[in-house]
Amino acid sequence: MLDTLRSNLDVVWGFVVALGVVLVLTPAVGRVARTLGVVDEPDETRRIHLRAVPRLGGLALFLGLFVPALAFLDLDRPYRGILLGAAVATTIGMVDDFRGLTWWIKLGGQIAAAAVAVQAGVRIDHFTFPLVGAHDLPFWIGVLLTLVWIVAIMNMVNFLDGMDGLAAGICGIAGLTFAVIALSLDKPAAAVLSAIIAGGCLGFLRHNFYPARIFMGDSGAMLLGFTLATVAVEGLLKTAATVALFFPLFALAVPLLDTSFVVARRLKYGEPVFAPDQAHLHFRFLRRGFSQRRAALYLYAWCAILAGAALATRFVPFREGGQWHLWPTVLAAAIGVIAVAASIYMVYLLEILKLRRVRAWAERRREAKDERELRSAS
């Protein structure tokens, strides 16, 4: 009981300290970035801001991660590797923020950061699926999968960081979700680190939400992506729970879907995968007439609904003792339907897929409604 209470308090204090550190340090980091000339100029290709904005916010996030991590984490070997890898990822990102790096040098740095964590023992060592059960993975396959996972999430968060407050908000929701799930799985270290991520993101949003006074830059995006990816492996995937494999995928569904659609489009049209464009979800919102603030809130809501589905999968006891239970199953199914409906609505709203029949049906309904209104008016 005392250990559980201590773990819960560490989670809360980690969140609060990270929030305070990032909240206080971010303005100072912004002034340093302006002095050094590390600013993001408007760019019609990829950027949508209208004035120069400092882009070294990742430094504040890094300090907001390390200070509470050193205070509240039991730094065994895997978590020492996570913090060291986070330092490598942030350093590579800062170099890119300062002078720019070619895509292959940046990718090499991301692989190096991921390799530090894997060397420390952060590795997907088994998988669990319904009806199949748990199966151990050969060492080299586990290492390869973990490297791919970490590098992929780092780039997904980096791709997502194209609109004020978007990456910080979504990473904050994912961190909070991970913290709750990790506590339920008796993974206190993962819960503390996840809460630290959530607190840091919330503190950063105070300065990064529209209109942003500072950007996190590649240093912040790579730090958040690396930390979320590694804590997902160490705190969530290394469990025997059947549904544990899907937790990170639900909580990180928005960046996963965003990157998947963009990469698929670039491959379809023969474009370079790493070339900047305006095919991301947030650009689609803006083309539909949404303001930056409203678009960010829509994406937050979508991410929160999917995170709620992840939590429901964990906490709603629809199948206990090998038996299905009616009302919990109905509740879990209802939450799942809401998550699927929200996702379909976003796909429809943003025209991610060419749903011609659905749009034709909707257009016919609008025309019929307009005709009825004209008849009633006459």
Secondary structure: elements and pairs:
Blueprint: H1 2-36, E1 39-40, E2 53-54, H2 57-72, H3 77-99, H4 103-119, E3 126-129, E4 133-136, H5 139-160, H6 166-184, H7 188-208, H8 217-237, H9 247-251, H10 253-268, H11 281-287, H12 292-315, E5 319-320, E6 323-324, H13 326-349, H14 356-377
Antiparallel strand pairs: 1-2, 3-4, 5-6
Helix pairs in contact: 1-2, 1-7, 2-3, 2-7, 2-8, 3-4, 3-8, 4-5, 5-8, 5-10, 6-7, 6-8, 6-12, 7-8, 12-13
Helical content class: over 70%
Query: In this structure, how is the largest beta sheet organized?
Result: 2 strands, antiparallel
* Helical segment count: 14
Rg calculated over all Cα atoms: 22 Å
Strand order of the largest sheet: 1-2
Task: Give keywords.
mainly alpha; 72% helix; 378 residues; single chain; 14 helices; two-stranded antiparallel ribbon
Quickly describe the structure.
With 378 residues, the protein is mainly alpha-helical. 72% of the residues lie in helices and 4% in strands.
